[in-house]
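Tip: read the tokens left to right.
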């Protein structure tokens, strides 16, 4: 599954990941408060291309009434699932009691979950973390309680909120939760899956029902192709460099078409900075700087042609 990621999982990227083999994709998270106030930049996040399906829209917030109203608006947009974000660790979200901030108020977290489940007819899922900090890793107790609220699946990122994205994800408690005989709903693991081998190990070692890939897909949506092939056959053949170049060019083009040239290029820089396609290329530093400073489609694609010719004989 493609993890929900702010400013990453836009419609174009979600569709590319689906085409590459992701079985389920998630939107960027949607603020319940902004949604019920009909903020244009937020309501646009509800747009779904039928080719993406199955697709989930994820919401976050801290007030039950706003979350219920937002959930009904999401349901009207027609996703296959509605996901509640109880895992976002960033300060501007968690410090206000939303996202992972809810892990400090479990009664309210459960109350919101139950209210949202009761408010809509589509399946509701939850994504969260191990707990707020090292002393409060509560997921093995929280999981069954969330299940009792009526959710249909639970995704767990193997870090606490205090860890943010540092250190290594700890899948031990995810595996323990999955092994709990009380758990009847699917348990999905998330955190540090960046290779097909890592995906296979997550299934084999921890017994999860699914894996969610986040940062490992940024600039590399073909990871889903590699994982699917490896899961099915025990080996995988990486996509040719030319195909990967085509995918990145498509992301650039569609980002510009969706927004505009200047902002579309700004949006896609995160993918260009992260892509493993350009890792370890010799004498690449200046070209990388130029690529990340390019402000026009012509300039950026010209650099792509230069990189392809110089390093990949394309």
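Filled-in amino acids:
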């Amino acid at each position: 599954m493609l993890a929900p990621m702010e400013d990453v999982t836009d419609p174009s990227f979600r569709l590319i990941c689906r085409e590459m083999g992701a079985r389920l994709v998630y939107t960027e998270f949607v603020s319940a408060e902004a949604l019920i106030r009909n903020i244009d930049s937020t309501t646009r996040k509800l747009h779904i291309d039928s080719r993406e399906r199955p697709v989930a829209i994820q919401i976050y917030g801290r007030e039950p009434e706003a979350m219920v109203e937002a959930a009904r608006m999401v349901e009207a947009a027609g996703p296959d699932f509605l996901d509640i974000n109880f895992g976002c660790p960033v300060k501007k979200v968690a410090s206000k009691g939303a996202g992972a901030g809810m892990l400090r108020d479990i009664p309210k977290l459960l109350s919101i979950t139950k209210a949202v489940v009761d408010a809509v007819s589509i399946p509701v899922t939850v994504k969260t973390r191990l707990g707020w900090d090292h002393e409060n890793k509560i997921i093995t107790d929280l999981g069954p309680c969330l299940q009792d609220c009526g959710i249909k699946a639970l995704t767990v990122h193997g870090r606490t909120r205090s860890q943010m994205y540092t250190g290594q994800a700890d899948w031990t408690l995810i595996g323990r939760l999955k092994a709990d005989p009380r758990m009847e709903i699917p348990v999905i693991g998330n955190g540090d899956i960046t290779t097909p081998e890592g995906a296979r190990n997550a299934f084999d070692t921890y017994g999860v029902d699914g894996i969610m890939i986040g940062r490992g897909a940024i600039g590399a949506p073909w990871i889903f192709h590699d994982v699917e092939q490896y899961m099915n056959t025990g080996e995988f053949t990486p996509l040719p460099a030319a195909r990967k170049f085509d995918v990145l060019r498509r992301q650039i083009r569609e980002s510009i078409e969706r927004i505009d040239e200047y902002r579309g290029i700004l949006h896609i820089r995160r993918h260009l900075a992260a892509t493993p396609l350009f890792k370890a290329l010799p004498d690449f530093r200046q070209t990388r700087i130029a690529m990340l400073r390019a402000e026009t489609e012509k300039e950026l694609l010209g650099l792509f042609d230069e990189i392809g010719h110089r390093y990949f004989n394309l």
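The chain has two domains: 11-233, 241-312. Residues 241-312 form one domain.
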